[in-house]
Each structure stands twice: as structure tokens, then as C-alpha cells.
Amino acid sequence: PIYYNDVYEVKLPKNHRFPMEKYGRVRQLVQQWLQNLPVDEQGVVNYEFRVSPLSSIDELTTTHDPAYVQRFLTGDQDERELRNVGFPWSQSNVDRSLSSTGGTVAAACAVVQARLRDPYGLHWGAHVAGGTHHAFYDRGEGFCVFSDMAVAANVVMKRYPDIVRRILFLDLDVHQGNGNALLFRDNDSVFTFSLHCSANYFSEKQNSDLDIELPPECSDETYLLTLKHWLNRIEREAEPFDLVFFQAGVDVLAQDRLGRMSLTPVGVQRRNQLVYEFCASQSLPLVICMGGGY
Q: What gap in Å lies between CA 17 and CA 280, rounded to an integer?
């Protein structure tokens, strides 16, 4: 299934640099692409769109400080907190943040439930939002209020402890996934891998389980060779995983206003294909989150 909610697009002040309209545009492009699939493929691919639910307080507090969650929900944040996140507070933004987290939780639960029904099939879900990897236990940063991937990981490990014991985060956004790195720093159940630009970050970097930095203006060839090498090593050397979260940020594109890297659209497609092949070869359930893109 693919999760989406119209509440993702909220009104921002004039000249705000965050491209809020990207969510609806991506949803429309995905729907058009799916409608144009050959008839024989339409019968094979399950591409049901589902409305992302609002994440509950119980889900959020598996990962985040209850006091921080409450401050955000009630608008009781100071100017510094709001400035660090980069969005003004509004009830619309509360709904957006709750649904952006809830969509990833729902996608993760859906693929785990599908795995229970069919242990040998390929079970992948997607979320046309999420990937908010700069949120920490008690604060948000860089357009990220809550870490949807971390919340989803903690929820499925709690709900399905016999099925989901080890999780892999593949973070291929141009920025390091510093929030997730810190949230799971002392948790051996989640392996965090971040492949990012060495000269591009929203805030202080943290130590992921595996951090690989690439230089600014990195090309398709260098990026793809590096990613393939490390995916192969993870497959060979890491303990087996039960679920993969893929932060599929496209701010690695040369056209991105904030990215500082030089990948082409074809390079990003090939990047994604490497991830899909990695998961398919091991029959790993996969949750895809949209991530950055400016």
C-alpha cells in the first residue's frame, strides 16, 4: 500500500523555503505512473492508496519525550523551538505532523502483517511523506517535528516482538540522519546507515552505526559504486534483519537548491533500484519514506 494525506500541505509564510506543494505533486505523479502501467503489470502490483492516519500519543511517546509531544500538540513551544524546526505553529501543522508520522507507522504495520500472512512473498509499503530524520527525543530540527521512522520502528517492535527483532535504516538523503542516529545509539535492534554529503547538514552530526560521507558535487558513478559496496558489506557481515526502512530523499539531485551533490534523475533511479534489489534478494519487508527534496 501507499499512504498519503491531503493535510500534508499546509500554508506557510510567503517566501518560505520549504516546498510544501511537493507532496501533492508526487502523489499525482505516482498515480499517473501507476495508471499507465501495462495491463499485465497492473494485475501483479498492489498499489492501493490509503489515507495516512494520525499517530497517537502512545505511538509518539515510544520515541519522544511526553513533555515535548504535549508542548507541540498544544502550541506551548518557545521561539527557539519553533525556529529550530523551521515551521510556525498551527493546528494544521499539528495534523500534518501527526499524519506524517502515522503514515509511516501504518505502512510498517501493513508490511509486517502481510509478512505474517505470506512469509515468502515480497511485502513493501510506501509513504508519500515522512523520512523526518532530524527529530530528536525532546526537540525537532530541520523541518522535522517527530521521527516517523523511529516511531514506526519502535511501534512494530513492540507490537510484533516475535516477528520484528532487527531493523535496518537505509538513509540516503543528502543530509546525515542525525536524529535517528542518536535515538538508536544504544539500541542494538536498529542498525542505522547514513550515506550523505560531507559538507551538508542542518545541525550537529551524530554517530550512526555506519556513516559514509561523500564529497560535494559527487557524481552518479561514485555514489552508486559506494552505495553498492556498502550494501554488499551489510548483507555479508551484518546480523540478519526483519524489516528495512528506506529514507529516499532526492536532495542528492544536482538540481536541488540545498543539496550540493550532482546526481542525475537516472542516478537516483539506479540508487533506488540498488535498494530494491538488496531487499528483494533477501525477501526483506520494506518501508519507503519520501525524505528531503528542495
A: 37
Q: What whole-number distance in Å separates Cα of residue 284 and Cα of residue 278?
A: 8
For 50, the 3-state DSSP assignment is strand
pLDDT, one tens digit per residue, over 65-120 is: 999 999 999 999 999 999 999 999 999 999 999 999 999 999 999 999 999 999 98
Kind and range of the H or E element at 51?
strand 49-51
Can you tell me the distance from the alpha carbon of 145 to that of 101, in angstroms, rounded to the nearest whole number?
9
Q: How far apart are CA 196 and CA 176, in angstroms?
A: 6
Phi and psi of 67, rounded to 5°? Answer: -65, -40
Measure the CA–CA gap between 3 and 22, rounded to whole angstroms.
Answer: 15
Domain ranges across the chain = 2-289
Number of helices (H), then strands (E), in the chain = 10, 8
- At residue 196's C-alpha, the angle toward residues 191 and 197, to 5°, is 160
Encode burial over 189-221: b for 16+ CB neighbours within 10 A, e otherwise: ebbbbbbbbeebebeebbebbbbeebeeebbbe
| Residues 192, 177: Cα–Cα separation, whole Å | 8
Question: Across the beta sheet with 210-214, what order do the strands follow?
Answer: 49-51, 2-4, 124-127, 286-289, 243-247, 167-171, 190-197, 210-214
CA–CA dist 9, 129 (Å, integer) = 10
Task: Give the number of residues written for the chain.
Answer: 294
Kindly write down the DSSP assignment for every residue of 214-280, as one continuous string. Answer: E-TT--HHHHHHHHHHHHHHHHHHSPP-SEEEEE---TTBTT-TTT---B-HHHHHHHHHHHHHHHH
Which residues share a beta bridge with 246?
Answer: 170, 288
Q: Say which CATH topology domain 2-289 has.
A: Arginase; Chain A (3.40.800)
Does the global pTM surpass 0.90?
yes
Instruction: Render pLDDT for 123-182 as a digit per residue (tens, 0 to 9).
Output: 999 999 999 999 999 999 999 999 999 999 999 999 999 999 999 999 999 999 999 999
